[in-house]
Design goal:
Layout (H helix, E strand, L loop, with lengths): L21 H7 L1 E9 L6 E12 L9 E3 L5 E4 L9 E8 L2 E10 L4 E3 L5 E5 L1 H4 L3 E10 L4 E8 L1 H4 E3 L13 E3 L3 E5 L4 E8 L6 E6 L6 E6 L5 E7 L2 E8 L14 E8 L4 E8 L2
Parallel strand pairs: 1-10, 8-12, 14-20
Antiparallel strand pairs: 1-5, 2-3, 2-4, 2-6, 2-7, 6-9, 7-8, 10-13, 11-12, 14-17, 15-16, 15-18, 18-19
Protein name: DUF4382 domain-containing protein
InterPro entries: Carb-bd-like_fold, DUF4382
GO molecular function: carbohydrate binding
Amino acid sequence: MKITRLLPLAAVALLGLAGCSKSDDAANTSKLEVRLMDAPGDFQSVVLDVRQIEVHLKDEGDPDGWKTLNFSPQVINVLEYVNGRSALLVSDDFAPGDLKEIRLILGPNSYVVGRDGQQYDLKTPSGQTSGVKLKLEKATLKQRETFQLLLDFDVAKSIVERGNWKPGNDKKERYLLKPVIRVVAQDLRGGIVGTVSPAAARPQILAIRSSILGPDTVSTSADASGAYQIGGLPAGTYRVEYYPSATSPANQPAYRNVIRTGITVVNEQMTPLGNTSLN
């Protein structure tokens, strides 16, 4: 899904206080889950080499406020986690408190497989050194609450082709990874779900909500069966736009852009949109 801004969310602080009994710990702590998801992109695979995940527990300018989460380094093909599926990266107990930032440290082994079947390295200089930092606003995890922090990776914006690259050049130099990630509070369980026809149109779907901060846009793409789903949406009224990515076959009606307005999203519910025809 596409990212236009970071949503306010709740998150984590330190482990339970030393000296408390196990029963006290269970009563006083909360659980944090960190998940990663994505929308389809114009690649066969997009593999991220995630080495470490950290959270910042103190003031933004405090260099000693970072805490490493209980995460096992792994490579993740983010294109496997679409249409409501997500990869569980972290599940851990924490004491209630505030969180300022989350940071991903990426290793050197990220790559993409293009539509041509060729593998291309992803250069991630910032991710390998200082990490990919995501600021959080008003982030407070409450006692005895399980909170899911969803990292929504935008393939279309995050993978940038070098302007001077040409076929025949070094494959390692074709793409740069400049991660664009929307942070969503998973307890915001509103969303939309539906299908498009014909499925061969493979449209991009945008859910657009107006707010005091400007339009908040989240997007995904329909899968091969025409199905799509966008979760983690705040309650409100949305405009849903459909843009076909394919061309209709010869002697058949052209695929068209479609805009649906007045779509109401309610927290804790998926709003069914039924089928949308693009003919």
